[in-house]
Specification:
Keywords: DNA-binding, Transcription, Transcription regulation. The chain is mostly helical. It has nine helices and no strands.
Length: about 240
């Protein structure tokens, strides 16, 4: 057995230990607890030794965030695997699955969606969660006649940003294998998708952090009603 191969296997095992320990600290104590010093202490090694694998805490946290996003996407893919491949049912199942995951993985949600270390993951369209969400949205665009805003109602000040986002959407949707008339993804539809995500994300964030203006005894009903409102506004059904 050559030394290079053995060192590679040892490095991979150590890297796995580091990320597993980081994930445990995240789940148990939150994003702030994920430090190189704390991980080194848990593993019984020196903090400088970790720099062989990660150049900084930010580097480690970025890898941890990617692991969390991949796990979220895998779970959502499993949720929709048995559903008809027609778009709407899958899209709303993803919305419900996202909320369920956020409420049961609050520390991971905080790291990925609600902390300075993480970005709005939908903006990273090529990542697993962005891909699964947008693939379902693409099927909705392809298979349904939606009620969408006309281009002229899009505020002029937003058009440049929306045009850039539109180009990213098209690239990811093509990579996902979605097929739909390209003219359907105009600025009005792009604007609608941003608003859809903002309402979904805003609702889930308020619920995760207990920031509703009043307590609800049946928050599931409120969430389902919000989805039904979104669906009705664009001419879909959540049933």
């Amino acid at each position: 057995m050559n030394n290079t191969g053995r060192r590679g296997r040892e490095r991979a095992a150590t890297d796995q230990d580091i990320r597993r320990t980081a994930r445990a600290l995240l789940v148990e104590q939150g994003p702030e607890a994920v430090t190189l010093r704390a991980i080194a202490r848990e593993l019984g090694i020196t903090a400088p030794a970790l720099y062989r694998y990660y150049g900084s805490r930010d580097d480690l946290v970025e890898h941890l965030r990617a692991d969390v996003v991949a796990d979220l996407a895998a779970g959502l893919a499993e949720d929709i695997a048995q559903l008809p491949d027609e778009g709407a049912l899958q899209l709303f199942a993803i919305c419900k699955g996202f909320r369920r995951w956020a409420l049961t993985h609050t520390k991971e949600f905080t790291l990925v969606f609600a902390s300075p270390a993480g970005e709005d993951t939908l903006s990273r369209l090529g990542e697993p969660f962005g891909r699964i969400f947008l693939a379902a949205a693409g099927r909705v665009l392809a298979m349904h006649d939606l009620v969408t805003p006309s281009n002229d109602v899009v505020p002029a000040e937003l058009r440049e940003d929306l045009t850039s986002f539109q180009e990213e959407l098209l690239a990811v949707l093509k990579e996902s294998g979605a097929t739909f008339p390209l003219e359907k993804l105009d600025l009005g539809v792009t604007y609608l998708m941003i608003q859809f995500w903002a309402r979904l994300y805003g609702h889930v964030t308020l619920e995760v952090f207990g920031n509703y203006p009043i307590p609800f005894s049946k928050p599931d009903v409120l969430f389902d009603a919000m989805l039904a409102d979104l669906a009705r506004e664009i001419g879909l059904s959540t049933d």
